[in-house]
Specification:
The chain has helices at residues 23-32, 61-66, 80-93, 108-114, 134-141, 162-185, 195-205, 208-214, 249-259, 262-271, 279-284, 286-298, 302-311, 322-328, 377-385, 389-397; strands at residues 14-18, 37-42, 55-56, 59-60, 71-74, 95-98, 119-124, 189-194, 230-235, 241-246, 315-318, 339-344, 348-353. The strands form four sheets. Strands 5-2-1-6-7-8 form a six-stranded parallel β-sheet, sandwiched between helices. Strands 9-10-11 form a three-stranded antiparallel β-sheet. The protein folds into two domains: 14-204 and 335-397, 3-Layer(aba) Sandwich (Rossmann fold); 241-318. With 408 residues, the protein is of the alpha/beta class. It contains 16 helices and 13 strands.
Length: 408
């Protein structure tokens, strides 16, 4: 086992982030959680996402979550002097991440003149640069027409911005790949990535596009049944909801053992000329299977179901609300080294998560609070650019910077 050397895996890496919404800030937060020094630049008072819901005490939990562990600088880039300051920060860092418009002063062509080995990542909605967000991208991918109850007419949206999350993690991966390339060759890189391309690529990997091209019948809606295999939601006698999954033949046998329904389910199997060791056969008989399992689960309280399923290693789990997750699930607590309870200025003390990645040869970065808007402006300009107190006061007095102003 390699002993950690006391330094986070990305210690020494500097990144400037010019961003809004979810994907780009998540990319920066991912790098910060691994020890990179990520400086987010916003206009004085904050950008368009500074006050996005959910809120607590009038402060944005959304902004705090997506900017955890970063440093916050506020500079007015509408002014030429502000543009020059941010350019100097980018040159110092050598890496810039943005999903904001890039033209003129902040274009790759202009910035690379001052830092020839610059790595710049530009995230867009569509590959041609036109606007799109997670929700418009998802609408076009087909998922809203396979989501929801059987027989439902019209699209059904889901609330998880999955394409934003995947794109945020992928843009962080891309930046690290570009940094590895620069370390080996000395060459910089312009990296571009779009939400739409991420959604198309993942849809292709999951077989959705091939299925649509090759199969005459389009995929339908199957409610809470899992397409092509077996999974369903059930309710216990005392009103708790559980999910039961059987992706493999062993997992299927575990259900038979736990419920004692082996003879009934094998009789069903024979009557349908099916082999329930096969995923497809379980899916085709899902309604009949679920009737038998429902009768068994609905007749028992949650704790009895839990004991039987755990003893026989059934692949199952409880349904929980966000409130239940945060209050009773032991994984969502300081007992889990992923979490720490931190005091976020203006919001209060609550659980914050660090990176789920654990490296054997590098120290894990503990969860950190998020900065208040602009709180690091003077410190970053002093540390990175060598500005003295007189220069900092002049910038603040003229409104180019707003140290410590705004809302977290």
């Amino acid at each position: 086992m390699i002993e950690p050397d006391g330094r986070p895996i990305l210690a020494g890496l500097k990144v400037v982030e010019l961003s809004a919404f979810v994907a780009a800030p998540l990319g920066g937060a991912t790098l910060a959680s691994l020890g990179a020094e990520v400086v987010r630049v916003d206009p004085p008072g904050g950008g368009i996402d500074a006050n996005r819901w959910p809120l607590h005490n009038g402060k944005s939990l959304y902004w705090a979550g997506l900017n955890q562990g970063k440093r916050s600088v506020t500079i007015d880039t509408r002014a030429e002097e502000g543009q020059r300051l941010v350019t100097r920060l980018i040159v110092e860092a050598g890496i810039v991440l943005t999903n904001l418009p890039t033209r003129g002063w902040n274009s790759y062509e202009r910035l690379v003149q001052d830092r020839p080995d610059l790595i710049m990542a530009i995230l867009t909605g569509n590959p041609d640069g036109t606007a799109a967000v997670d929700y418009t991208v998802n609408a076009a991918m087909g998922f809203p027409f396979v989501t929801g109850p059987e027989g439902w007419e019209g699209p059904v949206n889901h609330v998880l911005p999955a394409w934003d999350a995947l794109t945020g993690y992928l843009i962080a991966t891309g930046l690290l790949a570009a940094e590895l390339h620069r370390t080996r060759t000395g060459e910089g890189q312009l990296l571009t990535l779009s939400l739409a391309d991420v959604a198309l690529a993942v849809s292709g990997h999951l077989g959705m596009i091939g299925e649509a091209q090759l199969n005459e019948t389009p995929r339908g809606r199957f409610g809470n049944d899992l397409y092509g295999t077996y999974s369903r939601d059930f309710r216990t006698a005392d009103g708790k909801y559980v999910i039961v999954v059987a992706l493999t033949s062993r997992q299927w046998e575990s259900i038979l053992d736990a419920t004692g329904l082996s003879s009934e389910l094998r009789a069903l199997e024979a009557s349908r000329h099916a082999d329930f060791r096969l995923e497809g056969d379980r899916f085709e008989s899902r309604h009949e299977i679920s009737q038998l399992l429902s009768s068994w689960i609905e007749a028992r309280p949650y704790l009895e179901v839990q004991e039987a399923f755990d003893r026989h290693r059934v692949l199952w789990g409880p349904y929980q609300t966000f409130k239940e997750l945060a209050s009773v699930d032991p994984r969502c607590s300081v007992k889990n080294p992923l979490f720490a309870e931190l005091d976020q200025p203006g919001i209060g003390t609550y659980l914050r998560a660090g990176s789920p990645l654990v490296f054997s040869g590098a120290s894990r970065v503990p969860p950190k609070r998020s900065p208040s808007m602009g709180e690091d402006t003077d410190a970053v300009l002093r540390d990175w650019l060598g500005l003295d107190e007189k220069e900092l006061q002049t910038l603040s007095r003229t409104g180019l910077t707003a140290p410590g102003a705004g809302k977290p």
